[in-house]
Amino acid sequence: MLVSSSATGSAGMKFGSFFGDYFISIRKQEGLFTVKGNKTLFVGHQIGEEGTFLQWEWTGLQLVVRNDRYGLCPAYYSQSPKEFIIATSVQRLIAEGVSPELNYDALAIFLRLGSFVGDDTPYSAIRALPPGTQFTWSGGSECPTGRVILGEATTVRTREAAYRRYNELFSEAVRKRSNVAGDVAVALSGGMDSRHILLELCRLGRKPKLCVTAQVYQGESSEDLDLAKQVTQALAVPHVEIQQPRDWLNSEIQKLQATGLCALEHTWGMVVGPYLQDKVLAVFDGLAGDVLSDCRHIVTPARREAFQAGRFAVLADDFLQNEYGGVPYLKPELARLLSRERAIHHLSIEIARFAVAPNPVVAFTFWNRTRRTVSLLPHGVWNRSVQVLTPFLDHALFDFLIGLPVEFVEDYTFHAETIRRHYPGVAAIPFFSGPCRRPSNGSLVFRKMAVDLLWHGLRSMPSSYVSFRHVLPRLMRVIIDPSYSRSALWLGPAMLYGLELENCSTAHKFQGHSGLPTS
């Protein structure tokens, strides 16, 4: 079955199919192959050797698998000595018979950090496809391998030279991606990354057809949206505010399913891809711009010193300080298996991989949080409806930014100053960077969330994973105590994640599968 239908833009940009539910499973037995699924696949786009794509082909004797440098199109695989299966979702692998045994190390981190690290998934038998994979399987024990780029220290010595070089490389990155034979949009926030893209498109004379900003849920701040409006008005670019659906609960469940149980965030952004479908060919997104050129939130003196001293367990403990809090809402016997000690041990091993990078905190954050969580919205959800272009991941630009001295990018000024120098006409419009301001009616919205969650929880009882004795009283408190109302924002995702994880595992049991598919 052929699932790739490519088109080529004016600059040799190759577009494949939209992202979806694809898989191929292969078993070798007595010298013969049994194949099930999509024998050929190309999703995403390529610009020469760049872009964001996932590709595989079954030749009759070999399965050849490739993905982009950063591994941003979600892909997951499982294998045994004579079987190999790869899919674009974790759920598909479970449905095809892969073991649903939980990966306790991975979940111990995820439910605290909010991201899986390395190539972990919720399940021991399933791994994420590594970045930069070029893999051939012909029935043996070959495993996919990739490459994590740590970066090399830049030769730029002064901030002035760095400003100039940043603008040169960024302009070229946007120019290459703007040669699309069709209309484009920009997913615009009030921050720096998407604004930088929009300003450069306009400077190049390639204004997008429109900019889109998803409205926040009631009870959230609207300053981000207000600043996006100011920018589009100044540039005379059409701007659309996309409304959120009223059913937050259903959107949250859809988010968990669309991201393969690998993200606790992104519910707000689920509306963007479907809105843009049939309106534009591609959407520009500012993925990784903040981490690479404005990392003040993640780089601290304590983290820098800990990396230099090789105190990786200390770093792991620090990264886990602001816990998502998902573990306490699980059944005690499962929560014990997801201990903080287990999370620190496993996370410290992943952190150590980045000790030799020029900016190890940035490298660790990009290859884990950005790659495994943040990218799931544009490259796992939006690209089901529209092609997604991410100029900050242009190879030359990425290599420059990841190699910058920490002193250049550890405060708020480097990226902001780069933008102000190159686009003085909009320099007076501030960037959104502060905490959300909660309107006075926010508690009513959160109480409605809690009511919906309460009924959903009652309908889902009993559960082998979720401790309703812990969750339900807290949801009831959200309903009656306005001072506690915001707790719905973290109670909800924690409870729903546990239920969806259980549903995925239970579906496997009902199908009576054991191991990998046999046909």
Can you walk through the features of this model?
With 519 residues, the protein is of the alpha+beta class. The chain folds into 3 domains: 7-137, no CATH class; 159-295 and 358-426, 3-Layer(aba) Sandwich (Rossmann fold); 442-507, no CATH class. 42% of the residues lie in helices and 14% in strands. It contains 20 helices and 16 strands. The strands form 3 sheets. A 6-stranded antiparallel β-sheet has the order 1-2-5-6-7-11, with no helix packed on it. The protein has a 5-stranded antiparallel β-sheet with strand order 4-3-9-8-10. Strands 14-13-12-15-16 form a 5-stranded parallel β-sheet. The longest helix is centred in the C-terminal third of the chain and has 24 residues, at 488-511. The chain starts with 6 loop residues before the first strand and ends in an 8-residue tail after the last helix.
